[in-house]
Amino acid sequence: MSDDKGPFAVSRRVVIGAASAAPVVSGAGGAIADPAVARCAEWMALDAEIDRLGLRWSDLETILVRQRRWERMTPEERGELLPSEEMDAIDAQLKPLFDQREVWLEALPKVRAHDMYGVVAKLEVALQVMVHQQGDGYDLFKATMEELRIARCPNCGVPVCKR
Question: What's the CA gap between 140 and 148, in Å, rounded?
């Protein structure tokens, strides 16, 4: 993690992931003008890293179950197996990542989307949260829908949504 302890302090891995994910999240190929797009890309990259670690942990557990009848082993016997060391390391990595993802999620509704790319990026994060956590994305979704209701076309100024 970086030395900055603000709500969007990031690790190098997340920054690299966000940089590669931002154009995909925004649908753009160029510079990111809307800060909401960058914040959402950071969140999506962090979420992808959590998913990657969780899948690796699951793969290791599957190997252990197949090879050593994991469910019948004592905690001491499990600890002696080599893959369990990697599982412990993954567990240690996941806790702060889960905490960071939650802090970022709580901060995202306050990040104002300035264009439709930002609104769409925030909706993508809200959808991802709802898929994983079944409802914790409500505040982000609500704030983003409010932004969508007042958003205007950047070219002509016409409201994007009509009530």
Answer: 12
Q: Number of C-alpha atoms within 13 angstroms, CB side, residue 148?
A: 15
Name which of 47, 46, 36 is nearest 119 in CA terms: 36
Q: Which residues contact 135 (CB under 8 A, 6 or more apart)?
A: none
Instruction: List the structure tokens of 105.
Output: 């999620």
Please report the DSSP string for 64-100 in residue order.
HHHHH-GGGS-HHHHHHSHHHHHHHHHHHHHHHHHHH
Q: Are 153 and 160 in contact (CB under 8 A)?
A: yes
Tens of pLDDT, residue by residue over 86-143, are: 888 999 999 999 999 999 999 998 998 888 888 888 888 888 888 777 666 677 777 8
Q: Which two tokens mark 152? A: 């205007």
- pTM comes to 0.64
| Segment 2-21, tens digit of pLDDT | 444 444 444 445 444 544 44
Tell which wins on pLDDT, 23 or 104: 104
N-term to C-term CA, the chain:
44
Give, as one character, the DSSP assignment of residue 163: -
Residue with tokens 């925030």: 122
At CB < 8 A and 24+ separation, what contacts does 83-87 make?
84/60, 86/56, 86/60, 87/57, 87/60, 87/61
Separation of alpha carbons 108 and 86, rounded Å = 32
